[in-house]
Design goal:
By secondary structure, the chain is of the alpha/beta class. It has one domain: 3-Layer(aba) Sandwich (Rossmann fold), CATH 3.40.50. The chain has six helices and ten strands. It has a six-stranded mixed beta sheet, sandwiched between helices. A two-stranded antiparallel ribbon has the order 1-2. Helix 3 crosses helix 4 and helix 5 packs parallel to helix 6.
Length: 187
């Protein structure tokens, strides 16, 4: 079903960030360019595995979740909320400490409140640090996360990430990086 997306993963470059193998793909990095067919294929799959009648808002994290959330918003006519890396100091703003395999940063949630029914979408889960932090913050806010949908998974133990986030994560493609090459497998 996601054959074109799988092939695009297999042709993307892999770079080292310390000991971390990082695949460089249009959906995860915007390099070299995000083709419209990629967003169409991804959003079609999202609405198949998470019916839009189950949620009222789309939530994503800055930065590469934004193209996915935008395309999904246009497709479903539902509003989106972006968890930003910039502090605005607005009333009700919630700070999230984000840790990934190669960095630590702070993110800020605005525009959500307890009882909101949301879907969280993102480009990739690697170490799970960002996802765990965001899910914890949303849970503390009383936001009803109906689904978590991620395009790519690059983590050997997704079960632990799911347990820590308290939610089942719906993954479109598993990505395995070996020998400097990326390979994608449909879930």
């Amino acid at each position: 079903m996601l054959e074109m997306l799988k092939k695009s993963v297999e042709s993307c470059p892999v770079v080292k960030k310390g000991n971390y193998d990082y695949f460089v793909h249009p959906i995860t990095d915007g390099i070299p360019k995000i083709e419209p067919w990629m967003l169409e294929e991804i959003t079609q799959r999202i609405v198949e595995i998470s019916p839009p009648e189950n949620w009222d808002k789309i939530v994503t994290a800055e930065a590469m979740g934004i193209p996915i959330a935008t395309a999904l918003s246009l497709k479903t006519k539902k509003p989106m909320v972006i968890i930003r890396k910039k502090k605005y100091g607005l009333e009700g703003e919630v700070e999230v400490v984000q840790r990934t395999g190669y960095s630590e940063a702070r993110m800020y949630i605005n525009g959500l409140r307890g009882g909101d029914r949301v879907i969280f979408v993102d480009d990739v889960v690697s170490t799970g640090g960002t996802l765990i932090a965001i899910m914890g913050a949303l849970q503390n806010m009383g936001v009803d996360v109906r689904d978590i949908v991620v395009v790519f998974k690059k983590h050997k133990n997704l079960l632990k990430i799911g347990e820590k986030s308290g939610k089942k994560i719906k993954i479109m493609l598993d990505v395995v990086v070996e020998g400097g090459k990326a390979k994608a497998y449909e879930r």
